[in-house]
Amino acid sequence: MTLPPPLRSNARVSTSPDSRPYRPTLTVALIFVFVLVIAPYVNRLAPLFGGSAEEDRSDDPFGALQNLQPLADLLFDDFAFELIAVLAFITVMRWWRLLQFEPYPLRPRAFGALPIATAALFTVATLIGVIATPRPDWRLLALQAAFMLVVAVIEEFCWRGVAVIGLRGSGVPEWLVWLLTSAGFAAMHFLNLFAGADVEGTLGQVVFTFLLGSACYLARRVAGIWLAVAVHFTNNYLQVAASGSAESPLFDLVNATAIGGQALMALALPMTIVVLILEARRTRRASRSAMATPSG
């Protein structure tokens, strides 16, 4: 991918994770992400105040994703509003360049092999699952793909986009950018407890989404936001599109391929930690070298 030319000197937000040209960035970004994430779950908090949680479609998300009408309701009601809100916010803040392109991509580019291979394995598992599904409903599969793409775009634009830009623009160290965005993305799944999800299953989902968030962060650092969207989308779509192959002789192959992708995704966590440690060491060495160099 060809990187864009440097931003103009009068750009509102610097591309440098270490600079602090726009102090309100962090506050604005995190308030936006918090409101967007919390808004669909507000009714689930009613029991905390003596009320009862209103029944809604999201109480059975997997069931909704397997039927055309409730899936269409989700896509063109709740999530369409969220998508429009995300796109409008990024446009108003003039953050499209900072969102799409990574100012300091990782070197060497070989780091990109891990998220690319992860997305590829998820895609292969999905294709095998669809092929193995008897009489697949192509309309449903297409709507599922559209829904999962919208979800991936919303969540990646929020966490690996708006939140990353906000944290960097406020001078937060890059290791903390990774940790806060991945942990925040994972922690929002605790809200499923208010929809009746069991604690054990929710904890497993939180751990899994932290690993997914780390893989998406690594993908962004390598090639920008769209590779992160690809990793996120292929993971989500696999879980619904291949579900019809459960009774097929090919299901073991689907499962093995999916597990392979998840194993690669999990490797993103230690790789990200190593990458950030190496970057911090290089930054310290460069800083010491600059301080030791006599001025003109």
Task: Give descriptors for this structure.
globular, 10 helices, disordered N terminus, single chain, 296 residues, 68% helix, mainly alpha
SSE layout:
Elements lengths: L24 H14 L22 H5 L2 H26 L2 H5 L12 H20 L5 H32 L4 H14 L11 H25 L1 H17 L9 H42 L4
Helix pairs in contact: 1-6, 3-6, 5-9, 5-10, 6-7, 6-9, 7-8, 8-9, 8-10
3D structure, described in words:
By secondary structure, the chain is mostly helical. The chain has one domain. Helix content is 68%, strand content 0%. The chain has helices at 25-38, 61-65, 68-93, 96-100, 113-132, 138-169, 174-187, 199-223, 225-241, 251-292. The longest helix is centred in the last third of the chain and has 42 residues, at 251-292. It is globular and about 75 Å long.
The dominant shape is globular
Percent helix range: 55-70%
What value does the average pLDDT take? 78
Beta content: under 5%
Q: Over the alpha carbons, how many angstroms does the gyration radius reach? A: 21 Å
> What is the count of helical runs?
10
Distance between the termini: 38 Å
